[in-house]
Amino acid sequence: METARAGHYTASDQLHAVQAEVYAANAEVAKVEQQIQHQRDSRNRIAQQIASLESQLAQQQAQRGQAAEQLADWREQLNTAEQTATQTAATATEQRQQLPAAQAAFDAAQTRITTCSANWPRPSKAGAWKKRTLPMRKNPWSNIARA
Q1: Do 144 and 106 meet the contact criterion of CB atoms below 8 Å apart?
Q2: How far apart are CA 62 and CA 70, in angstroms?
Q3: Counting CB atoms within 10 angstroms of each CB, which of 3, 53, 115, 145 has the fewest?
Q4: Global pTM value
């Protein structure tokens, strides 16, 4: 019976040793599974971040393209405005140069009107018809600003 008891203790010790190895192996498997799950979660999170960043990048590239188009439009409008300003300044200069001749022609016409008015026949009866005159300005270009 002692041998059976000793054999039983030996078998129990071996069983406990094997169970300890099984528990250790199970613990190692659980640890590896946890690491694998952590890696999957990290990979999914990173994939989502990459997708989000790619979407943001695409939006920013589209905005950059629109901004470049708007900049080109504004530059074209600026160029057109500068050309128009140059042409307008040239036209204003030409008109200013012609102003003295136009003023002289106006003054001559005013003098002729005054002369004709003075020679206009008067009615024989007082108040039979009224002398009609057009209101004339002395200088019609007086409101034009000279640059």
Answers
A1: no
A2: 12
A3: 145
A4: 0.47
Mean pLDDT of 105-132: 74
The answer to whether 113 and 136 have CB atoms below 8 angstroms apart is yes
Residue where the block lists tokens 């989502």: 48
Over residues 100-128, the mean pLDDT reads: 80
What are 82's two structure tokens? 């500068």
How confident is the model over 19-31, as a mean pLDDT? 96
φ, ψ dihedrals at 28, nearest 5°: -65, -40
Name the residue type at position 47: A
131 within some domain: no
Q: Domain for residue 139, yes or no? A: no
Q: Which of 7-21, 67-81, 90-104, 133-147 comes out lowest in average pLDDT?
A: 133-147
| Half-sphere exposure for 13 (CA within 13 Å, toward CB) | 6
Decide if 125 is inside a domain.
no
